[in-house]
Amino acid sequence: MPRHLAYEGPCFAIEWYFDTGGKSQALEYFQELNEGRQDKTLYLLKRMGDFGKISNKAQFRYEGDDIFAFKPQPDRFLCFFVKGRKIIITNAFVKKSDALPRKEKQRAMKSREDFLSRIKEGIYYEQG
C-alpha cells in the first residue's frame, strides 16, 4: 500500500498529506494513538471510503473554507476533498474546546494550498 494511502474504498481514497520534507503530521499523530483510538479513526475513514458520506455531524463535519473534520472523539482529523474521489487528511489534534482552533484550521488551509500547487506542478507524489 502506498504510504500516502490511509484507506481506499469504492467511493473515496483517503490519503495522508505529506509536506515537501516528506513529513505527515496527521499520520505521525495517528501512529502515536493507542489501538482503540486508531480503530475509532479507521472506522470513520472506512465508512467514508466505502459509503461516500457520514451523516452524523458528531463524526464528520464541514468546518468552512473547504475544510472538513473527521471527529473520532477526542481527536480531530482535518481534511479536504479533491478531484478523483480523494480526501486528503492534513493535520490532527486532540479536541479541547467546542470551537475549532483557528491555528489548526489555518494549518489545514495552508496544506491544501500546498497540495494543490504541487499537484498542479506534477511534483506532489514524486516527493512523497
Q: Explain this structure to me?
A:
- By secondary structure, the protein is an alpha+beta fold.
- The protein has one domain (5-127): RelE-like (YaeB-like fold, 2-Layer Sandwich), CATH 3.30.2310.20.
- The chain is built from four helices and six strands; from the N terminus they run E-E-H-H-E-E-E-E-H-H.
- A six-stranded mixed beta sheet has the order 1-2-6-5-4-3.
- Strand 5 and strand 6 form a beta hairpin.
- It is globular and about 35 Å long.
Order of helices and strands: EEHHEEEEHH
State the separation between the terminal residues, measured CA to CA: 13 Å
Rg, rounded, reads: 14 Å
CATH class identity: Alpha Beta
According to CATH, the homologous superfamily is RelE-like
Brief rundown of the structure:
This protein is α+β, with helices and mostly antiparallel strands and 128 residues long. The chain is built from 4 helices and 6 strands.
Task: Throw out a few tags for this protein.
six-stranded mixed β-sheet, 128 residues, 4 helices, alpha+beta, 6 strands, YaeB-like fold
SSE topology sketch:
Blueprint: E1 5-8, E2 13-16, H1 25-32, H2 35-51, E3 60-64, E4 67-70, E5 75-82, E6 86-94, H3 102-121, H4 124-127
Parallel strand pairs: 2-6
Antiparallel strand pairs: 1-2, 3-4, 4-5, 5-6
